[in-house]
């Protein structure tokens, strides 16, 4: 992870500041961009006009930073080289509008950002920072770097600290599991039954991973988009979702896993590589890994 003495500290701050500054533009543009395009993204998902707009906005502004040498997006097939300073620049992988399918029903969505000190596709060990913006009733931003995890209110594109040194609560209370139940492997189904039998745990699943992750971060618990019978590697992308969310949750005192190891230890082989994602409180992920053995 980055530290205060890390030479990339200023670059990370510049990237975070740029993402926050663009948040109001993206949010203001959503009402007029709820329609589907004829195109699909590299993961085979139908794109909305809002997906393309957010991607172009981030590419333009992040790509203009001297601190960024590569830009990759869930919405693009190829990695985009930028004019950043090659010797000191960072690679940014972004999910411009996570949960954009929620736009039609006016539910939560957000933006996920991963900052790597390596060419893409990069390993979790190459992450120096990660963040997400959450478009809920208010706009908030979570950042993780060498200083820990911080929650901000984003007001008119400017970050205001809400909570410093965010840590997962010791008493977890929420869970959210993705994928179709009939498509779950038996060992994961057994794990979910154990979680659901605990009266202290409440289901929280909203169809946008970023909203469900924020519930886990604030209340403690577990989120999973598991390996499926029809998709052994799950649905979520390592570069854009698995690594940055794993980094944030681990920085907040939790754990991440692909079922056998930390998400940050998964070997990268493609910028759109999929991976099962399990994140949450340490004991819940330990219990999950034991169930999947």
UniProtKB/TrEMBL annotation:
Pathway: Carbohydrate biosynthesis
CC cofactor note: Binds 2 magnesium ions per subunit.
Subcellular location as annotated: Cytoplasm
Enzyme Commission code: 3.1.3.11
GO CC term, one of those recorded: cytoplasm
InterPro entries per record: FBPase_C_dom, FBPase_class-1, FBPase_N, FBPtase
Domain Fructose-1-6-bisphosphatase class I N-terminal: 38-158
Enzyme class: hydrolase
Domain Fructose-1-6-bisphosphatase class 1 C-terminal as annotated: residue spans: 168-291
Positions contributing to Mg(2+) 2 binding: 95, 98, 241
Family membership noted in the UniProt record: Belongs to the FBPase class 1 family.
Protein name: Fructose-1,6-bisphosphatase class 1
Gene giving rise to this polypeptide: fbp
